[in-house]
Design brief:
The complex is a heterodimer of chains A (about 400) and B (about 210).
Chain A lengths: L2 H8 L20 E9 L5 E12 L9 E5 L25 E2 L4 E2 L4 E5 L14 E2 L4 E2 L9 H14 L5 E7 L1 H12 L4 E7 L7 H15 L17 H15 L2 H8 L18 H16 L2 H13 L8 H5 L5 E7 L7 H13 L4 E6 L13 H20 L8
Parallel strand pairs in A: 3-6, 3-9, 4-5, 9-10, 10-11, 11-12
Antiparallel strand pairs in A: 1-2, 2-6, 7-8
Helix pairs in contact in A: 2-3, 4-5, 4-8, 5-7
Chain B lengths: L2 H10 L5 E5 L5 H10 L2 E6 L2 H9 L3 E4 L2 H6 L6 E7 L8 H11 E9 L4 H10 L23 H11 L1 E10 L2 E2 L4 H4 L2 E8 L17
Parallel strand pairs in B: 1-2, 1-4, 2-3, 4-5
Antiparallel strand pairs in B: 5-8, 6-7, 6-8
The chains are: A alpha/beta (about 400), B alpha/beta (about 210).
Amino acid sequence: MDEKEKSMLEGDLQDSVISKYHSDLGVTHTQKVKLPGFTTQSGYELKELEISYQTLGTLNPAKDNVVLVCHALSGDAHVAGINPKTGRPGWWDFHVGPGKSIDTNKFYVICSNVLGGCSGTTGPSSINPDTGKPYATEFPPVTIRDMVRAQVMLLDYLGIKKIFAVIGGSMGGMQALVWAVDYPDRVHTCIPIATCMAHSAMQIAFNEIGRQAIMTDPNWHGGYYYDKNCRPEHGLAVARMIGHVTYLSEYAMHKKFGRKIQRPPQPEDLFPEFFSVESYLQHQGESFVKRFDPNSYLYITKALDRFDLLENRHPRDVFKNVKARFLVVSFESDWLYPPSQSKELVKHLKRCNIPTTYINLDTPYGHDSFLIKNPEFSKALSNFLNAEYRNISQNPNNNNHR
Amino acid sequence: MHKNLYDIVIDWIPEGSTVLDLGTGDGEFLERLIKIRNVKGEGVEINPNLVTKCIERGLVVHQGDVLDGLDQYGNGVFDYILLLGTMQELLDPQKVVNEAFRVGKRVIVSYSNFAHLKARLQMMFCGKAPVTSSLPSPWYKTPNLHFCSILDFQDFCKDIGAKIVKSAYINKAGQVKFLPNLFAEYAVSMLEKSSETPSRKTEISYDPAI
């Protein structure tokens, strides 16, 4: 079995069964901070904003080695190292750590859970201070820009003005784009991976199927299930199963499962064949519901669908103040966020004279290509970060080579 | 390709120019050009492994074919477009050169001379497609889709309305001044859009719906 197949079977670090995993970072922790007041883009005021975040590495005296990692839909602040609560490695441990692409010996890595999430940052499952009960669906709709503004508040709190690199895949890539556009003076390099400027109808459609699965689960109760015995777990599991299929590729699924049968037929089985892929998806669904809040899934997928970087403005107007240098990465086998969407972004950036490097990697793992062990991706990423960092170290007064 | 050829190109490009290198490979030449001439340069390369090497050198590079690479840019944003050793591998060189004139002011092209003495002798006496140091692969393995001589290239330029500003001809011994079409293995020319033909810069405003 070659390395590619091994990586494919191993999968990502989020929900796959991990028997033995060694993280060079050992056990790492997340922290929480309570910040006062946050007004969402929709005008709703949250009295307090709690943010869960992780920092790895050391902030250097010049404060020029900050790498902000933005997570995707189902990620959290625990980016790398072993989580002491779950015993599992962080979701990007393949790429973040000492000597890895995002080298914690060199960079000060920050990752925070998004606004609307359910892993420590304020979201629908958080307690509303006005009522003493979870917000549930009284929580205001959030946007990708809201998520970024929450990160801005965190960085202000941490006393960090300038980010050397903002990086993220999928929804994380959208956040990276917003950072570069809305905070041009704070971002030196921007690395959007497998992302887009706005969801297509197909991307919205898959999310809507997921949302319907949750909202039609009798245990959803309009979102007010927190004081009930049951959560809409079945709906969330189905949503995750659909989502997970869209993150893989036909090739990866065929290699991983083929038409393998999971176990001999049982007397209670309606149909005799129980395929491995069915078992795998059920496991994915079951493991996801243990760590994710169904309402958060609704809020975050809707934020993804509503995201539109251009919002009917001319790209020149949107990108006119951008100072960041870009590395845009896409994956040939990614059919959920296809390379054509990255190419569209690249063309706008380049036509607006923004220094943009584009690489489309021919790795076979689908949208998940950035989450699993992927040496081609690691190499491109580390080469870019190292070259750019070398550049600012050599020309500290000329941070933007424009 | 001959080392001298790249030095000639470096000599031709003035300090501080803007350059787009099509088919930039691992970026070694572009990096050298940026260092020596202090140019603002970007590259286009189709092979992701080579793109990764360009990234390692800190170059701005676009992964894609030559036409896709040119399509990323607006009109007249570069002083020089480089097509070094790439032209004969292109399906439609005319389309590429025309597109290059939209994006850049001058185009520098290098190619292998199919009418070099050795090639002629092999054709004449062996009756086979030539395999020489400048045309090293047999017909079924060569990346070249088009074979041309220096005279053919001059006709091509006339045909597409490009003016040859300057040329250099090279073989193993160095520059060739005498009967280049017979003695040169490689040629490099700087082209300019001929003033007799109307300018092709039709795309004035940038359509956001690309």
